[in-house]
Amino acid sequence: MNSKRTGMFYSLLSMAGMLAGISPANAADTVALAPVQVNITVTANVANNKRMPEIAQTDVLVRQGKARLEVTGWVRAKGDQAGLDLFVLIDDASDPRLGLQLDDLRSFIQAQPETTAIGLGYMRNATVDIVQGLTTDHEQVTKGIRLPLGNAGAYGSPYLSVINLMKGWPDDGHRREVLMITDGIDRARHHVGFHRGFSTDPDAESAIAVAQRTGTIIHSIYAPGAGSLRHHYWVATNGQMNMARLSDATGGASYYLGLHNPVSFKPYLNALQQVFDNQYLLSFTVKPAKRAGLQSIKLSTEVAGVDLAARDAVWVPAAR
Predict the structure, then answer these.
(1) What architecture is the 34-78+279-316 domain classified under in CATH?
(2) Could you tell me which of 312, 297, 294 has the C-alpha nearest to residue 68?
(3) How far is CA 165 from the centre of its chain?
(4) What is the rounded CA–CA span in Å between residue 134 and residue 15?
(5) Predicted confidence (pLDDT) at residue 173 exceeds the cutoff of 60
(6) Could you tell me where in the chain the CATH 3.40.50.410 domains are found?
(7) Rounded to 10 degrees, what is the CA torsion of 130, 134, 138, 142?
(8) Which fold, 83-277?
């Protein structure tokens, strides 16, 4: 009997030692999974002709699934926080009649504040021919604007082009935004045949992932391309819809008037200026996973009549 009690005693003692050995590891895991801060740019939108109300930090809700995340910062992108890096990308596959809208684009660039650095490039051969790097000399940027060539090159894809730009774009802490002027047709993939109905472009999906990871907001203006592809209804529609999805998923705005060339870009550019003027810098905490990756989020506000636009996923580093 005594031997049984002695054996049980030593068994319990051994288990206690094992639990004591595990505890420090569990404590380390708890520290490693501490929430990390994520920063994103958010656009506040109201209906036309409505006054933008004041939006306080406590009015902003960030959710991940059913869980509400802690908002740690909400600052208007003004004053010391007004820095904006904007790249204007024009598709070289665009119809040369785009020239009718280029004066509107020049006026828009010249009207930007000195806190906005602007770059200019032409999308061709799945890359970007950067005519002018980011600069606050807006007049210099307008000098680089030319007519598109009407040809995308041997391997033309606006999505691969913008990916190429984003991957080589250093982070200086400013808002990162792109204005793409394109029909959204991925000419690098046209050889796979034409499909009736909407289809998701894999390169557009890749562009969304890179934009969300790098914190890049992508806006777009539809401009018909040159050549025969623009006359295929589903090809043209899918190009426009994939560009609209790219803009929406990254928190940007997409402007188009059916599949037609707009009479003027001015209304679109005026609307885009309102976007820039009503942006906020939002900070919140997210619990990291064992591996770095994109995590889906959803933004909302309790202020009536206001809609918040932002990317629907954020890059979260791995737990340490």
Answers:
(1) Sandwich (2.60)
(2) 297
(3) 13
(4) 64
(5) yes
(6) 83-277
(7) 10
(8) Rossmann fold (3.40.50)
